């Protein structure tokens, strides 16, 4: 049986249609996996000494958890969970640091530096590598030592706000400090440049924001609101782009510029002494005597 030209066109058309369907299915699968990954773990902030967790989407795929601790200078990535023969095994050095199940990775204690029972800081960049090569997701854990601290410096006519925190430096999620008055009106919002607190711990930093009280002489009470920025756009696309959902604040009350008061200078006349009075009386008497003789 000979194939006609029309049959050849039909066969070629069928192959093209099947190829298009396969491409569409592959793209949909990739899109679905990518969407799950992009909405998986998120950047977050935790207080030092408190637990934290990264919640993952239960998509039935096993994965490998890794962490790049904020206090390591070189070769920062460490494996928390090893994949071995389809079984997930917690790395022995992290037994006292993490707890893992199919839903989440739990940080038992948030830290800005290594401790006796924890070999590394838990602040850092976390990644979840699924066995599917198209699905890798990551996010940062920023650990703050405490709420921001506000101070009033009348001598230098300023209020200041500071916070100590640890984060993975390459991710560059940094504090934003916003000064507000009694009525909640924003006076200034700034992302100050952090300074390092420890040369051996590159992720431990301090951010300080100052506001001159002379610029708002009618304001007595100031509030500093702390939030955090979105990460650097230069990081890999699989790293979460969200700004952490976190807000804390501190306040200073009755902080006003001291303006020195001007005092009126009073002129007082001193009473003449006894000897001065006697001399004046003697001169007056002599003058009177001279007048009478004349």
Record the SSE blueprint.
Elements: H1 5-38, E1 44-47, E2 52-55, E3 63-69, E4 78-79, E5 81-84, E6 87-90, E7 98-100, E8 104-107, E9 124-130, E10 136-144, E11 149-153, E12 158-166, E13 175-180, E14 186-190, E15 195-196, E16 204-212, E17 222-228, E18 248-252, H2 274-293
Parallel strand pairs: 1-10
Antiparallel strand pairs: 2-8, 3-4, 3-9, 5-6, 7-8, 9-10, 10-12, 11-12, 12-16, 13-14, 13-17, 15-16, 17-18
Could you describe the 3D structure shown?
The chain has 294 residues and is α+β, with helices and mostly antiparallel strands. It is built from two helices and 18 strands. It is 18% helix and 33% strand. Strands 1, 3, 4, 9, 10, 11, 12, 15 and 16 form a nine-stranded mixed beta sheet that branches. A four-stranded antiparallel beta sheet has the order 14-13-17-18, with no helix packed on it. The protein has a three-stranded antiparallel beta sheet with strand order 2-8-7, with no helix packed on it. A hairpin with a 4-residue loop joins β11 (149-153) and β12 (158-166). The longest helix has 34 residues, at 5-38. It is elongated. It starts with a helix and ends with a helix.
Comma- or semicolon-separated keywords:
294 residues; alpha+beta; four-stranded antiparallel beta sheet; 2 helices; 33% strand; elongated; disordered C terminus
Briefly summarize what is shown.
The protein has 294 residues and is an alpha+beta fold. The protein is built from 2 helices and 18 strands.
């Amino acid at each position: 049986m000979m194939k006609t030209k029309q049959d050849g066109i039909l066969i070629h058309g069928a192959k093209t249609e099947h190829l298009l369907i396969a491409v569409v299915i592959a793209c949909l699968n990739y899109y679905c996996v990518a969407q799950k990954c992009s909405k998986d773990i998120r950047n977050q902030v935790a207080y030092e000494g408190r637990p934290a967790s990264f919640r993952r989407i239960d998509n039935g795929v096993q994965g490998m958890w890794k962490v790049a601790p904020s206090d390591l200078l070189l070769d920062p990535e460490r494996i928390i969970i090893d994949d071995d023969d389809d079984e997930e095994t917690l790395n022995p050095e992290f037994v006292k640091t993490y707890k893992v199940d199919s839903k989440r990775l739990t940080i038992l204690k948030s830290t800005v530096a290594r401790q006796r029972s924890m070999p590394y800081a838990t602040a850092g960049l976390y990644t979840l590598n699924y066995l599917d090569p198209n699905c890798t997701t990551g996010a940062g854990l920023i650990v703050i030592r405490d709420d921001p601290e506000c101070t009033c410096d009348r001598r230098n006519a300023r209020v200041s706000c500071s916070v100590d925190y640890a984060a993975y430096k390459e991710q560059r999620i940094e504090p934003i400090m916003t000064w507000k008055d009694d009525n909640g009106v924003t006076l200034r919002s700034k992302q100050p440049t952090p300074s390092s607190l420890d040369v051996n711990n590159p992720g431990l930093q301090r951010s300080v924001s100052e506001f001159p009280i002379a610029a708002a002489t009618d304001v007595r009470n100031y509030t500093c609101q702390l939030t955090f920025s979105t990460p650097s756009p230069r990081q890999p696309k699989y790293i979460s782009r969200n700004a952490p959902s976190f807000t804390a604040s501190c306040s200073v009350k009755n902080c006003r510029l001291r303006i020195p008061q001007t005092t009126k200078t009073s002129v007082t006349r001193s009473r003449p002494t006894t000897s001065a009075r006697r001399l004046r009386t003697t001169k007056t008497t002599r003058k009177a005597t001279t007048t009478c003789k004349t």
